[in-house]
Amino acid sequence: MNEIPENLTIGVLADAAGVNVETIRFYQRKGLMNEPDRPLGGIRRYADADLARVRFIKSAQRLGFSLDEIADLLRLEDGSHCTEAREQAERKLGDVQARLADLHRIEAALQGLVERCCAASGQVRCPLISALQEA
Questions:
Q1: Given Cys at both, which of 68, 81, 97, 100 links 76, Cβ 3.0 to 4.6 Å?
Q2: How do the pLDDT tens digits run along the chain, 135 residues long?
Q3: Which residues contact 41 (CB under 8 A, 6 or more apart)?
């Protein structure tokens, strides 16, 4: 595995985190990451902690957390607020379960419409289009 240098440029940071440079800048504009000072005539440098932060953000996004929710989690990052973090995860789990229930209802409705289409072959009106027009 390639070793990551201590002082990262934004490009190296982005590559190491598996994102593009604009993603880093976007996170900075959203307040999820600090923008390091630029030394006089120099290039901003990022630390390993910045890389860990980007990876944290990306991991949370993969779990379905919004950037606002991630900002809340980052405020708890010292690890001493386990109850608050758990409550946020429970809320997210509830959201996911509600979306899954919605998707199951959609699946059942579409399955029924597809079956009606198969059973109605040769008719002038398509049952799927008719059902959508009636809704």
A1: 81
A2: 455 556 899 999 999 999 999 999 999 999 999 999 888 788 899 999 999 999 999 999 999 999 999 999 998 877 778 899 999 999 999 999 999 999 999 999 889 888 887 776 666 677 777 777 777
A3: none
Other CB atoms within 10 Å distance of the CB of residue 22: 10
The pTM for the full model equals 0.74
Dist CA 94 CA 89 (whole Å): 9
Smallest CA-to-CA distance from 30 within 74, 64, 78, 86 is with: 74
**For residues 47 and 38, what is the distance between their CA atoms, to the nearest angstrom?**
14
Question: What is the Cα–Cα distance from 66 to 91, expressed in whole angstroms?
Answer: 12
Task: Give the 3-state DSSP-derived string for the chain, with helices as H, strands as E and coil as C.
Answer: CCCCCCCECHHHHHHHHCCCHHHHHHHHHCCCCCCCCCCCCCCCCECHHHHHHHHHHHHHHHCCCCHHHHHHHHCCCCCCCHHHHHHHHHHHHHHHHHHHHHHHHHHHHHHHHHHHHHHCCCCCCCHHHHHHHHC
